[in-house]
Design goal:
Elements (H helix, E strand, L loop, with lengths): L2 E4 L5 E4 L9 H4 L16 H4 L3 H4 L2 E5 L46 H30 L2 E9 L14 E4 L8 H12 L6 E3 L7 H6 L6 E9 L14 H26 L2
Parallel strand pairs: 2-3, 2-4, 4-7, 5-6
Antiparallel strand pairs: 1-3, 5-7
Helix pairs in contact: 5-7
Length: about 270
């Protein structure tokens, strides 16, 4: 299987589309050697999000690396952020702009289509089915799209990111009361910075599946990796840092769920 789904009991589905680290053996020789270290992974999120069992969340995550295919990009490969540097459906660059593939070994159209069918489609079929299951059971569903990224990546954005980047597709993917609740929960911790719908407003998953009118609310959280790990190889998890941010994540997600339940009188 190219993905892992753990079903929970709450009206909460957590998607972690960029935590995979596998590059299939038949593809590895096409990449530059450095790519095999998959440095642009959303590292350690399963460990960091230790609140999910207590929240009753369902969790969906892939095995394959975003270097194989980016599960948070649209199938037609349209840019998510026009005018800015973007990674593609089948990325060809590291986050610093360097080339991922050996010269002449970039995936041709037929290979991109193969990867889309083999990896992208099953993830999105499962995501859609799980959202429908949860909504049928509870009457609504909160989709939390979990990400992390280095705090400084000049190729993608200027300067230093806020610690917590909350995205609701500029308000289109979740009711405004949910975004406010998430932001207020984060603001209770004065040692972390936050922004709503800043540089990261939500990728394809947030924009495609968030539909408040249909009782599906989607929030993306892009958080800086220096909150819980080393941003340099070998990208070690740091327990002391993680312990400080884990309550923030728990309270943000709890606040989002509470706001959802209030909307629906549950």
């Amino acid at each position: 299987m190219s993905l892992i789904l753990n079903r929970g009991t709450a009206p909460l589905l957590v998607s972690m589309p960029h935590i995979g680290t596998d590059i299939p053996a038949e593809l590895r020789e096409n990449y530059v050697p450095r790519a095999l270290d998959v440095e642009d992974t959303d590292w350690h999120l399963v460990r960091l999000y230790n609140c999910l069992p207590a929240l009753g969340a369902s969790v969906l995550r892939p095995r394959c690396s975003r270097y194989v295919i980016d599960l948070n990009r649209p199938p037609d490969d349209a840019p998510m952020y026009p005018g800015a540097s973007n990674t593609e459906l089948c990325p060809t660059h590291f986050f610093n702009g360097d080339l991922l593939y050996r010269e002449g070994h970039e995936p041709p159209p037929h290979e991109r289509q193969r990867r889309r069918s083999l990896y992208w489609q099953p993830y999105h079929d499962t995501l859609r089915t799980e959202l429908e299951r949860i909504k049928a059971e509870h009457g609504f569903v909160l989709l939390w799209d979990a990400h992390s990224i280095r705090s400084r990546i000049p190729w993608l954005f200027e300067g230093v990111l806020p610690d917590l980047n909350i995205g609701t597709a500029s308000g289109a993917s979740a009711h405004e009361s949910i975004a406010r609740a998430v932001a207020a929960a984060a603001a209770a911790y004065g040692d972390v910075s936050q922004v709503i719908n800043g540089r990261f407003k939500g990728g394809y998953i947030t924009r495609q599946y968030g539909d408040p009118a249909s009782d599906v609310h989607a929030v993306q959280l892009e958080m800086c990796q220096n909150l819980y790990m080393s941003e340099k190889p070998p990208f070690r998890y740091k327990d002391d840092r993680a312990a400080r941010v884990q309550p923030v994540l728990r309270d943000m997600m709890s606040a989002a769920l509470a706001a959802c339940r209030k909307l629906y009188g549950r």
